[in-house]
Amino acid sequence: MENEVLRCIKGRRSIRNYENNEIPKEIIEEIITAGRYAPSAENRQPWKFIVVTNREEIKRLSEETKKQIGKILKQRRKWKRKYRELNDEQTLMFLRAVAFSENDTIFHDAPAVVFILTDDEIFNDESCACAAQNMMLAAHSMGIGSCWIGFAKFIENSEMMKEAGMPEGHHISACLTLGYAKSISKASPRKPTSDVIKWIE
User: What is the pTM of this model?
Assistant: First the structure.
């Protein structure tokens, strides 16, 4: 029963180790087109995309993200209600390692970063998640690795995102890195179907 689409879905991995090669602009546009063809609530197509391929700008965005994480760590009592994970010591250790690393622990030195933006209308984030998944699968089908970068949420209110052209009233719904993979990890085991599917017949 397996076909090309299912093989693509099962073969995709989150990539955090990229070759130095640039991705041609037309390929990035094709990946975004796959996102634009995702289903969306009421066919609103609520997404906007900011693509960053300037390496220095990606470094600046990474440093700004780490700076914002550092601020949250310093004021974690204030943020504990919003981010319950700040109550977990292992999470705190991980965040400290990310925030104070000299390496690009945010975008992993990827040659391209794509921000998917939307406003606060109901179901827009779900629509953008569909677009992001389409993009990751399209990228994989073209031999390009990707990774969803959750940490990017920490810079959605920064001046840098305003300078990059994020419209007023919008937020970062998703952020993807794109690049040619240096290495690809093995598939993570999936939970058995008996644990995740309940049939009502």
Answer: 0.94
